[in-house]
Amino acid sequence: MGGHWLVTSCFALVALSWSVFYLFRFTMPVWLPKLLLIAVMLRLAVPVVTVGTDALFQHFLAQDYTNSQSFIEAGAEDAKKLNPPDKLPPVSKGLLDYLKAWVPQDLNIGASTDRFMKAAEQWPEKIINLMVIFLLQTLLLPMVLLWGLVTFAKSILDAPSTAPPNREKFESNGR
Q1: How many structural domains does the chain have?
Q2: Residue 150 lies in domain
């Protein structure tokens, strides 16, 4: 939205107008600084929120996200090991060869099953962790950052104006 040509053009026009009033010390309309702040917010709010959300994610949430995701992926790999192989030898080779294909190579089925069951008990926690991180990253953090920017802009808009002195007053002080 902020990069649209119309928003960029309006921002440039308002910034140029404000600069002319400020540099030449003309009496600035009260609405012009407010309009400039609104234009800056429209132009930069989305990029600032996006960069801020990513920075907060990288600093606080990325490690938990990576750990949860790798734990679930490892559990999926363990589950594949417990399943029978996809391609079984034909029964014509012999019943013994056919049954050997069903038995895992490590023959410690009990330990594999126990390890898989312990991991499966933690999957709901890891999945909920991923869902919470997703909601924080996509909804809560952007909304909080945008709220902060809007609150900051409102505080600036509500502050008393500190416009530069008029050119006539400036020149009458001995310059």
Answers
A1: 1
A2: 5-172
